[in-house]
Structure formats: structure tokens, C-alpha cells
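Annex B. Sample input.
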Amino acid sequence: MYAPPPPRPMYSPRMPRRRPFGVTLLGILIILIGLLVLFVGLLLVLIVVAPGSVVPAEFSALLTVSGLTLTIAAIVTVVGALWLVAGIGLLRLRTWAWALALIASLLGAVAGFLTPPVGLGCGTIFGIVVFIYLIAVRRHFR
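Annex B, continued. Sample output.
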């Protein structure tokens, strides 16, 4: 006896999301930047906590003048960790990573503008380009 085919589902199967090449490249770049900033932050913490261990004591004495240096080192370390997490989330097309990278790019652009002459060119332009690109690929993160 002939059995009828099973009924079709009322919904279409969900298509897997494809990650654009630019998002892959941006995710890898942000991970690398996060690792670099995290390394610098941890190095600053080490210089403040154990003067003379990484750089000569004459130079580390300049950095350990106050608790402000330790606060800055801690902030740099946290920012590096956030960049790292945002890059991993971008590679996985997570919505929260898109928002985190958007905020971080704006903060990076502002920080680059406030630290001339080196940051004015690199940090500001990179932050603005990342911000514009993230707005352009927003639909991939929904």
C-alpha cells in the first residue's frame, strides 16, 4: 500500500548565517589589538607593583609616583580584555559583541583624538572606520 509523503513544515528551515569577510578580518584585528592592549596593561601593573623587575629602577620610579598609575594600568588591562571579548564575539556574530565593538570604536576614536600627535591619525581614523563598518554590517548580527 502507498503511504503519502510526510507533510511539509509550515516554516522554512533556518539558513545558517554567513559571516562576511570584513567581519572576520575585523574580529581578528580586534582580538590582536585586545591582546596587545591587555599585554601593555599587565606590563604596567607589573611595573607599578614590582618596580625594577621589567625596566630599570630609575624609570620605574617615575611611574610609581602615585596610585594614579596603578589605576590607569588597571583601566588599560580591562579595556584590553573587553576588546578581546568583543573580537571573539564578532567572530561568532553575537549581537552583544556588535554593540560592545561599536562602543569601543567610539571610545577609541575619542581617546585617539585626545592623545595627539600619534593617536590623532591612527586611533581616530581606525575608530571611525570601524564604527562606520559596524553600522554597515549591522544586519548580520540580528
